[in-house]
Amino acid sequence: MKDIRECLVWLEYTDGLKLNVEMWLDIDSCIEEQIRRSWESPPAADTGPKLANFKWDLCHRPSALVE
Question: CA 54 to CA 14: how far, in whole Å?
Answer without folding.
Answer: 11
